[in-house]
């Protein structure tokens, strides 16, 4: 990874939970190095000046290409359009960390969002005086978004046991680029999420984070959303429509075992149950349907606190 900064931007001191202001940030159609943004975004307590030039870090073509591909695959950027992802890829800067370095400390203020390029990082969470390792991050994974998007202290400590290479995105740029899409989406999805009893046990920060990761999917009546025997990689919440569940046992013709409607969910067994990572039943839209979906990585990270509740429901199916 080779790069050099073209211009540096000081980190802002804007804080508090942001509302989407009257004027929305729009991504430039030209590269940052030649264009300034004039929009201003008002927030609860402050204003983010969108006219600040955004730094461009020169990268080799191959670094740019692989970073851009990583952004395409990462669920945190799923709602951004191509020009927004181009802009992020241009502005990200390389940061390397030595063995045992602490990239993020729980409780600190957020400064950067990172994408891991090489090496591994462990995620440790301290609660009630106990520290536990909750996850290991691998190349392609992003982290550090929660404190930036929610103006809260860092929710976990990130340590690299072996040393690592990352791409880093400063707080101001992250918020400028993500604010429009993520906050608008969060407002829309909060209503829906509040109707799903499963999510009652999440804290409001956890619910916000789930909203930020949700994606949308519309299918027509007759579409097979999940097929028995397939490998599962998505969790579905029904926002509109009806889904029929059918299951074949020991090769016999599939039998209907139920119908789901909003705000019920499906697709969790193959994601949670390592032994049954294959879809256990077929789920077919019997009307046109609209779903909110969570990709597998987000599901594990964000719905970890609900594992027991989901396992209880899974055992009731059996
Ligand atoms: N359970 C988890 N699994 C994986 N990553 C997490 C988990 N909890 C928090 N993180 C990440 O750790 C980061 C710590 O800084 P942030 O709170 O800004 O953002 C956090 C998330 O990106």
TrEMBL record:
Q: One Pfam family name from the record? A: cNMP_binding
- Asked if Thylakoid is a keyword of the record, the answer is no
Q: Which UniProt keywords apply?
A: cAMP, cAMP-binding, Nucleotide-binding, Phosphoprotein, Repeat
User: Which InterPro entries does the UniProt record give?
Assistant: cAMP-dep_PK_reg_su-like (IPR050503), cAMP_dep_PK_reg_su (IPR012198), cNMP-bd_CS (IPR018488), cNMP-bd_dom (IPR000595), cNMP-bd_dom_sf (IPR018490), RmlC-like_jellyroll (IPR014710)
Under the heading PROSITE patterns, the entry gives:
CNMP_BINDING_1, CNMP_BINDING_2, CNMP_BINDING_3
**Stretches the record annotates as Disordered:** 1-45
Signal sequence extent = none
- UniProt superkingdom: Eukaryota
According to the entry, every stretch annotated as the Cyclic nucleotide-binding domain falls at: 76-195, 198-318
PANTHER family the record matches: CAMP-DEPENDENT PROTEIN KINASE REGULATORY CHAIN (PTHR11635), CAMP-DEPENDENT PROTEIN KINASE TYPE I REGULATORY SUBUNIT-RELATED (PTHR11635:SF152)
The record's family statement is:
Belongs to the cAMP-dependent kinase regulatory chain family.
Q: What is this protein called?
A: cAMP-dependent protein kinase regulatory subunit
Per the UniProt record, the source organism is Blattamonas nauphoetae
């Amino acid at each position: 990874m080779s790069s050099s900064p073209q211009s540096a931007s000081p980190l802002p001191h804007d804080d508090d939970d942001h509302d989407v202001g009257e004027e929305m940030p729009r991504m430039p159609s030209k590269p940052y190095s030649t264009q300034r943004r004039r929009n201003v975004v008002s927030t609860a307590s402050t204003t983010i000046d969108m006219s600040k030039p955004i730094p461009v870090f020169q990268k080799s073509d191959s670094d740019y290409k692989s970073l851009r591909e990583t952004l395409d695959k990462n669920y945190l950027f799923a709602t951004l359009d191509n020009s927004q992802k181009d802009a992020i890829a241009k502005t990200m800067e390389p940061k390397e960390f030595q063995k045992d370095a602490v990239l993020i400390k729980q409780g600190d203020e957020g400064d950067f969002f990172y994408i891991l390029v090489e090496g591994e990082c462990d995620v440790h969470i301290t609660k009630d005086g106990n520290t536990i390792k909750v996850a290991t991050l691998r190349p392609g994974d992003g982290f550090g978004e929660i404190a930036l998007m929610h103006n809260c202290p860092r929710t976990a400590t990130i340590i690299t046991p072996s040393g690592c290479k990352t791409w880093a995105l400063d707080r101001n740029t992250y918020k400028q680029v993500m604010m429009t899409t993520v906050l608008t989406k969060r407002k829309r999805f909060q209503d829906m999420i509040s109707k799903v009893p499963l999510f009652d046990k999440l804290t409001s920060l956890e619910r916000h984070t789930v909203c930020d990761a949700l994606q949308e999917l519309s299918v027509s009546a007759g579409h097979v959303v999940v097929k028995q025997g397939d490998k599962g990689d998505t969790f579905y919440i029904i926002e509109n429509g009806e889904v029929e569940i059918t299951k074949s046992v020991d090769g016999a013709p599939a039998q209907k075992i139920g119908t789901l409607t909003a705000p019920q969910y499906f697709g969790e067994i193959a994601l949670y149950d390592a032994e049954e990572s294959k879809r256990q039943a077929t789920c077919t839209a019997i009307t046109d349907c609209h779903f909110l979906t969570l990709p597998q990585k987000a599901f594990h990270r964000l719905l970890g606190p609900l594992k027991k509740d989901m396992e209880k429901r899974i055992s009731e199916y059996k």
